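COMPLEX REQUEST
Ligand: adenosine-5'-triphosphate
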Amino acid sequence: MPQVAIQAHALTRTYRRGSEDVRALLDVTITIPPAAFAIVLGPSGSGKSTLLNLIGGIDRPTSGHLTVDGLALHDLSERELDSYRREYVGFLFQFNNLLPNLSALENVALPLIAQGRSWAQARLQAGVQLADLGLGHRVGHRPAELSGGEQQRVALARAVVTRPALILADEPTGDLDLESAQVVLDLMSSLNRDLGATFVIATHNPRLESRATHVFELSNGRLAPPVPRP
Ligand SMILES: Nc1ncnc2c1ncn2[C@@H]1O[C@H](COP(=O)(O)OP(=O)(O)OP(=O)(O)O)[C@@H](O)[C@H]1O
Ligand SMILES: [Mg+2]
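STATUS: Structure written out below.
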């Protein structure tokens, strides 16, 4: 898997609401080295999701520069951004966004199909990925037939099955009980270690802080001074 570095320089995202500008992210300059396990902290509304959406190519900055693996995201066309998302990024959200009418296996196979793999190959690979995350006995279940923690592990399998260099997780444990959250965190840590994928995780969960290689704190869209790491 290629390893990616993320560089944001004076990154700003403002939203126009009526006659008013909402400054969701303001002048954020950060470097996240390859294979980092970076977390983004900050109160509700501080800009965490906005930052992740920009890094993931779901949204575009109003101004500033953002490069991932040397690709200048702020300069890419829509088509190039699409292919960036497909090839580089795995997303994990608080609410897992699994498709309700598909089995766990089919949900995990979808990103592989999007990359042009055959169904047979995608199903095979999805099955291996689910087994790796301890869900080999649940492949045929639909999301509603799984616990919240299991659903989030399926979503994690879907996020990593293409071996993306970058995994973006927005409050991935926000909807889980402590034990399930721990399982998902352990899995993310080991995927980071074993695959060398760069993780950027927006969270309120303080237990993630001890595992982080980098901690960024946002306040009103601005980056707080760096937290010294032991
Ligand atoms: N599409 C939008 N239009 C207008 N304002 C928006 C939009 N998206 C976000 N904002 C505003 O930008 C600010 C940052 O929002 P963001 O979702 O990044 O916060 P957050 O840190 O992820 O919060 P939470 O912890 O609640 O998820 C908020 O004030 C929000 O209201
Ligand atoms: Mg958010």
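REMARKS: Residues 6-99+166-223 form a domain with the Rossmann fold fold (CATH 3.40.50.300). Residues 61 and 166 are 19 Å apart (CA to CA).
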